[in-house]
Amino acid sequence: MTQNATQTLHIVGGGMAGSEAAWQAANMGVNVVIHEMRPKVETFAHRTGHLAEMVCSNSFRSDDDEQNAVGLLHWEMRAANGLIMATADKHRLPAGGALAVDRDPFAESVTETLMAHPNISVEYGEITELPSEGHWIFATGPLTSTALGAAIQAETGADRLAFFDAIAPIVYADSIDMDVAWLQSRYDKGETEEEQKAYLNCPMSKDQYEAFIDALLAADKTEFHEGETAGYFDGCLPIEVMAERGRETLRFGPMKPVGLTNVHRPDDKPYAVVQLRRDNALGTLLNIVGFQTKMKYGAQTEVFKMIPGLENANFARLGGIHRNTFINSPTLLDDQMRLKSRPNIRFAGQVTGVEGYVESAAMGLLAGRLASAEILGHVLDTAPLNTAMGALVHHITGGAEAKTFQPMNVNFGLFQPVDGLKGGRRGRKDRYKAYTDRAKTDWQSWLAAQD
């Protein structure tokens, strides 16, 4: 199909959302140009110029498509021939029931696949204005550039919303004391021995935990720039912020000691446990789970070496903190994800106020399909409300309270109730299964109507 410039879909940002949007559109027969500012314009968090680079965790979280909303989102994206999920499956690492990936080969593979597609081209350079003509998707993610952010602010007439996202440190596996640490997934979760030993555990006694909390609270922290405020997303809080909320908070969060038995001292129940998860296929790199931080680098090495088993740890990457920008989507976007004031522009990914790799890619998938249908001359209904993707897009385009709008992971709280099912914890398993069964049926019907 030959298309002129007005039939080309321009996608700004080559992260999870932009990459998935490009893939979906190109497979519908639309010519796509991805505009990526990296590596010409760098960010604090990115290390490469690859598309779909993972900058925080290497986990796509739960892969359970019957009892978990993000697992259901995985299922829907796979059913829609999603590039991000197919590539994640290809580069999967053991993670005890979660979907974790080898981050560098993952990004390299996404980049190679997109670059090889005959309908896709990539232009490197920064887009600083909102165009008045053509078909555009802005999927610039949490690190939207200052110039583009100012253009969005000028167009919408509202202040940008921003919070701070923190990055967890990565440790070289061979520097960990395995006479102290041991391999075990919580509750031995996983179908294979490799999955059941997907996490490395470092135990703490009560005294060790108390000393760790004291050091954490006293450590030097990164200062904010003038005019910046710390509005953290609760799903990615720095550990020192969690510790400030109460000395036991970490023991009931990332350091909870439940479901684990110390193989070195099976009769000695740890007071707290720090977990590390494989970050690459070789198993040479491990990230400290839930240990996003804004401590200064020198303080990080001192505090983290207090963890039993990490006394001599070498760090491949220390933690960090960066600005995360998103728009007030419920007031700005219509149900086709278009900017109400400029319908030739759609937004997708984390900049819309979804949180997480999977959610970002899912919004890219949907925006890519919606934009392509429009270019090809027909209207595509947005995702059905009772699907994971539909629940999420409904939340950001009108379901959320605009005055208190904050980034959101997909969760069953966004789903319409199923009549006749019990509420509360006891009815949760049946309720979640009903949600996922209903969603799969509706999602398959939506996809079939496009064939």
Automatic annotation (TrEMBL):
<keyword id="KW-0520">NAD</keyword>
<comment type="similarity">
    <text>Belongs to the MnmG family. TrmFO subfamily.</text>
</comment>
<dbReference type="InterPro" id="IPR040131">
    <property type="entry name" value="MnmG_N"/>
</dbReference>
<comment type="function">
    <text>Catalyzes the folate-dependent formation of 5-methyl-uridine at position 54 (M-5-U54) in all tRNAs.</text>
</comment>
<feature type="domain" description="MnmG N-terminal">
    <location>
        <begin position="9"/>
        <end position="377"/>
    </location>
</feature>
<dbReference type="GO" id="GO:0030488">
    <property type="term" value="P:tRNA methylation"/>
</dbReference>
<dbReference type="Pfam" id="PF01134">
    <property type="entry name" value="GIDA"/>
</dbReference>
<dbReference type="GO" id="GO:0050660">
    <property type="term" value="F:flavin adenine dinucleotide binding"/>
</dbReference>
<dbReference type="GO" id="GO:0002098">
    <property type="term" value="P:tRNA wobble uridine modification"/>
</dbReference>
<keyword id="KW-0274">FAD</keyword>
<dbReference type="InterPro" id="IPR004417">
    <property type="entry name" value="TrmFO"/>
</dbReference>
<keyword id="KW-0808">Transferase</keyword>
<keyword id="KW-0285">Flavoprotein</keyword>
<dbReference type="InterPro" id="IPR036188">
    <property type="entry name" value="FAD/NAD-bd_sf"/>
</dbReference>
<dbReference type="InterPro" id="IPR002218">
    <property type="entry name" value="MnmG-rel"/>
</dbReference>
<dbReference type="GO" id="GO:0047151">
    <property type="term" value="F:tRNA (uracil(54)-C5)-methyltransferase activity, 5,10-methylenetetrahydrofolate-dependent"/>
</dbReference>
<feature type="binding site">
    <location>
        <begin position="13"/>
        <end position="18"/>
    </location>
    <ligand>
        <name>FAD</name>
    </ligand>
</feature>
<keyword id="KW-0963">Cytoplasm</keyword>
<keyword id="KW-0521">NADP</keyword>
<keyword id="KW-0489">Methyltransferase</keyword>
<keyword id="KW-0819">tRNA processing</keyword>
<dbReference type="GO" id="GO:0005829">
    <property type="term" value="C:cytosol"/>
</dbReference>
<protein>
    <recommendedName>
        <fullName>Methylenetetrahydrofolate--tRNA-(uracil-5-)-methyltransferase TrmFO</fullName>
        <ecNumber>2.1.1.74</ecNumber>
    </recommendedName>
</protein>
